[in-house]
Amino acid sequence: MTDKIYEYKDDQDWFVGKWSDFPNIYNLGLERDFFQIEHELAGLNSGEQGFDVSVLRYSSDFRLMAFIIEMINDAMGRQLEIKQHKGAILISEGQQLRLVHLPEQGLPLSDFFAGEGQASLGDKILIATRNEGKTKEFRQMFKKLGLAVENLNDYPDLPEVEETGTTFEENARLKAETIAELTGQMVLADDSGLKVDALGGLPGVWSARFSGPNESDDQNNAKLLHELAMVFEEKDRSAQFHTTLVVAAPQRESLVVEADWPGYIGFEAKGDNGFGYDPLFLVGETGRTAAQLTAEEKNAQSHRGLAVKKLMEVFPAWQQEQS
Questions:
Q1: pLDDT (tens digit per residue) in 150-192
Q2: Which cofactors are reported in the record for this sequence (predicted)?
Q3: Which residues are annotated as a binding site?
Q4: b/e burial code for range 297-321 (CB count within 10 A of at least 16 → b)
Q5: Which of 89, 117, 166, 180 would you label with 235, given CA atoms 20 to 30 Å apart?
Q6: Binding region for substrate
């Protein structure tokens, strides 16, 4: 029997687990009974070992069950998978459905089976982008929540949504809420840009088309340097990269998270990584531009990385409230 200690902790959930002789989920001061989960997951483990889990913070059954499934997979070499479907939680292994966990009030049969075949079983989120690189990042993120990820390439007949808003949130809402109504799916959209203090927040929502509707990154960077040509002190060239993420679903209140990445605009482009204004954006007080960071360094601190982290903290509670 392994002596390994497992832990998962964020703003919404905190679980600590180990292996023992009997399965136990300890409720540390929470008004929640976990006997059903304890009993169901004990059956998956075939009596080989007992998981011993202390729950210090709790937001959803899914998060807790996913933690225990990871323990079982790690210790037993299993390949159990967990996903959400119509308010239920499904656990499978290979081609076998091993467990269906239902909320205490149950689910209407018509909702659970509504037009679903085996291939489409499971909840999905549609990312409002055709960028496969961005989709890959979101797919890794939402896999932890048991959600399959699609993008606009899976819906070639959808019209393009014009970004006519004057704020990042308006544009992100336009994309997410319009596509959610057209498809009936849960949709995530983002709008990002650069805000330069000396320019009153420009280019802002016009970041991608700062020098014209069809201009290149190099042309946008050249225009930005031109606009700041008479600003000689680096401290006066402060700026922030901004991201707004919006998750929408039909007849639901949308979820909105935002994040900023502070820095300064340099006097010349440096670095070969990244895109957009990255070669001009000096990260904090480091003296390095965003284009001089590795992908891992950038994702750990960027506006999009911070926004995604915030989203993962609040998304499970939002999904549970809206279902």
A1: 999 999 999 989 888 999 999 999 999 999 999 989 999 999 9
A2: Mg(2+)
A3: 129-134, 162, 191-192, 275-278, 298, 303-304
A4: bbeeebbbbbbbebbbebbbebbbe
A5: 166
A6: 129-134, 192, 275-278, 298, 303-304
Residue 277 CA neighbour count, 13 Å, CB half: 33
Tokens of 55: 């729950």
* Other beta carbons within 10 Å of 31: 6
* DSSP alpha helix (H) spans, the chain: 35-44, 61-76, 109-112, 132-143, 168-183, 217-227, 295-301, 303-322
Q: From the candidates 13, 61, 190, 191, give the one annotated as an active-site residue.
A: 191
Helix, strand, coil % over all residues of the chain, rounded to 5 = 35, 25, 35
Query: Is the pTM higher than 0.70?
Result: no
pLDDT over 70, % of the chain: 95
Of 199, 222, 209, nearest to 163 by C-alpha is 209
Task: Please classify residue 148 by burial: count the beta carbons closer than 10 Å to its beta carbon, then call 0-12 exposed, 13-18 middle and 19+ buried.
Answer: middle
Using DSSP bridges, classify how beta strands 124-127 and 148-151 pair: parallel, antiparallel or unpaired.
Answer: parallel
Q: Mapping DSSP to helix (H, G, I), strand (E, B) and coil, where does residue 156 land?
A: coil
